[in-house]
Automatic annotation (TrEMBL):
<keyword id="KW-0472">Membrane</keyword>
<keyword id="KW-0442">Lipid degradation</keyword>
<keyword id="KW-0443">Lipid metabolism</keyword>
<dbReference type="GO" id="GO:0016020">
    <property type="term" value="C:membrane"/>
</dbReference>
<keyword id="KW-0378">Hydrolase</keyword>
<dbReference type="Pfam" id="PF00561">
    <property type="entry name" value="Abhydrolase_1"/>
</dbReference>
<keyword id="KW-1133">Transmembrane helix</keyword>
<dbReference type="InterPro" id="IPR029058">
    <property type="entry name" value="AB_hydrolase_fold"/>
</dbReference>
<feature type="compositionally biased region" description="Polar residues">
    <location>
        <begin position="462"/>
        <end position="471"/>
    </location>
</feature>
<feature type="transmembrane region" description="Helical">
    <location>
        <begin position="240"/>
        <end position="260"/>
    </location>
</feature>
<keyword id="KW-0812">Transmembrane</keyword>
<dbReference type="GO" id="GO:0016042">
    <property type="term" value="P:lipid catabolic process"/>
</dbReference>
<feature type="domain" description="AB hydrolase-1">
    <location>
        <begin position="125"/>
        <end position="413"/>
    </location>
</feature>
<feature type="region of interest" description="Disordered">
    <location>
        <begin position="443"/>
        <end position="471"/>
    </location>
</feature>
<feature type="transmembrane region" description="Helical">
    <location>
        <begin position="14"/>
        <end position="46"/>
    </location>
</feature>
<protein>
    <recommendedName>
        <fullName>AB hydrolase-1 domain-containing protein</fullName>
    </recommendedName>
</protein>
<dbReference type="GO" id="GO:0016787">
    <property type="term" value="F:hydrolase activity"/>
</dbReference>
Length: 471
């Protein structure tokens, strides 16, 4: 009897499967061996890779950005990263309705400012930042200059800044029901972020601050989580005065690597066979520990280029070294499977538990996964997207969003550029500050005049030089 999955695969896809399994087996073997190696041996690998890198490039003088990058590299966590630039943060814990404990960070004041009553209201307007897939809150504060960090700029401009974390990542690896070593702990997808993580975190922030509303800033999957949450929980719309989506993600076309893209779309659940049912790419921390940071950055660059055709030319080498060290955080395999289901069906849908889709014998399908009703979102939406970002199809996205959505194009920007690009303080942050000011004061006339009625991406598009810096 033929196996349904393998009966649909081409010879090239069979080769891809064999190669993927071989690489994963080799990585797992190395990881197992490393567990029994003394620290001195691991340090030797690190020093050897550093010497090899320096021998290839030769000695050079340190620049100011490189000095900052070295400090960020030594930072172990969010607190250390804030300490590099003199910011004092608060830590909070949110318990979701289904029992996950989420780490939540806060920047309540300007640089060096201490509060007599931490954990209380500041009276300032509240902004909530949420990261993307395989990330955590550190992505917002690991920049080589503080004026390019959106979180720090917001704090300096009088905002009460909160930074969230998804269940399972570095700061949220705890549940009152399941151990993180259990597969039940990792049994979550974007659906769970929409029903629990985002609304429960927002409710906690509003309870602590006493504010009636906050502004939401998401990056990549952090935007998808908000799109999903706002669409299925109408009451949440009244709690967010504006949703600013950076490098928005809703229904990406796919990956640049044709073999991987075709294989994953043919059977998204094949990822369960490759990675199991817990966290994905957990070996990344192992490679990071033994490779010299510039070499590790080059590995990440090559991987991003292969998978997404990103060249990251707008991000400096030193920024990559500093940021990539804080890039990876744990995520569930199921959440990645969910993304490939979305790509395969070209629809922003809920997780499909029916892994074996019914055979279609007519032009009418007998089954369709439930879609997130994103056109029902009432909250004002502002999209900031790069026109070189392979994961953003702006026309398709706008067709699935309400007509009051405003979209602003960032020329030559890719996905990660919007976080760490050399000119984010000129091209991105001023756009964010303007949108916050307009929607917090209720002044939307300028945006409506500038961007049209919301019927197409061209109607919504402005260039990234249209707003002057506000910092």
């Amino acid at each position: 009897m033929a196996v349904p999955l393998f009966g649909r695969l081409s010879i090239r896809e069979y080769v891809a499967i064999c190669f993927s399994l071989s690489v994963l087996a080799f990585a797992s073997l190395l990881k197992f061996i490393i567990l029994f190696l003394p620290k001195a041996v691991i340090n030797w690998f690190y020093k050897w890779s550093r010497r090899l890198f320096k021998w290839r490039l030769g000695e050079k003088k340190y620049c100011e950005e490189e000095i900052a990058a070295k400090k960020l590299l030594k930072a172990r966590d969010f607190e250390d990263l804030c300490g590099v630039y003199g910011y004092i943060h608060e830590e909070h814990v949110v318990m979701t309705k289904d029992g996950y404990l989420l780490g939540l960070h806060r920047l309540p004041g300007k640089r060096g400012e201490r509060r007599d009553k931490p954990g209380s209201s500041t009276g300032k307007p509240v902004v909530y930042l949420h990261h993307g897939l395989l990330m955590n809150s550190e992505i917002w504060v690991c920049l080589t200059s503080p004026e390019r960090s959106l979180a720090f700029v917001l704090a300096e401009n009088g905002y009460d800044v909160w930074l969230g974390n998804n269940r399972g990542n570095k700061y949220s690896k705890k549940s009152i029901h399941h151990s993180s070593t259990s597969s039940k702990f990792w049994d979550f997808s974007i659906d769970d972020f929409a029903w629990h993580d985002i609304p429960d975190t927002i409710n906690h922030i509003l309870q602590v601050t006493g504010a009636p509303q906050l502004s939401y800033l998401g990056f990549s999957q952090g935007t998808a989580q908000a799109f999903a949450a706002l669409s299925v929980q109408p009451q949440l719309n009244a709690k967010i005065n504006v949703f600013i989506a950076l490098a928005p993600a809703m229904s990406p076309a796919g990956l640049a690597a044709p073999i991987v893209d075709g294989l994953m779309k043919a059977s998204p659940t094949f990822l369960f066979l490759l990675f199991g049912r817990k966290s994905i790419l957990s070996s990344a921390t192992f490679w990071q520990s033994i490779l010299y940071p510039p070499i590790f950055a080059q590995v990440i660059d090559s991987s991003l280029g292969w998978l997404f055709n990103w060249r990251s030319r707008n991000i400096s080498t030193h920024q990559k070294v500093a940021a990539y060290a804080h890039l990876y955080s744990f995520a569930s395999v199921k959440s990645v499977v969910h993304w490939f289901q979305i790509m395969r069906n070209a629809a922003f849908q809920m997780y499909d538990d029916d892994v074996l889709s019914p055979v279609v014998v007519t032009t009418v399908s007998s089954y369709r996964p439930v879609r997130f009703p994103t056109r029902n979102i009432v909250t004002p939406i502002v999209l900031l997207y790069g026109d070189s970002d392979s994961l953003v199809d702006i026309d398709t996205m706008l067709s699935q969003l309400p007509k009051h959505t405003i979209a602003k194009r960032l020329h030559t920007y890719e996905h990660l550029d919007i976080l760490w690009g050399e000119n984010v303080h000129v091209d991105v942050i001023p756009q964010v500050m303007l949108a916050l000011k307009q929607h917090q004061t209720g002044d939307h006339s300028e945006a409506q005049c500038e961007n049209g009625d919301g019927t197409s991406s061209e109607d919504h598009t402005t260039t990234n030089n249209s707003v002057s810096p506000l910092i």
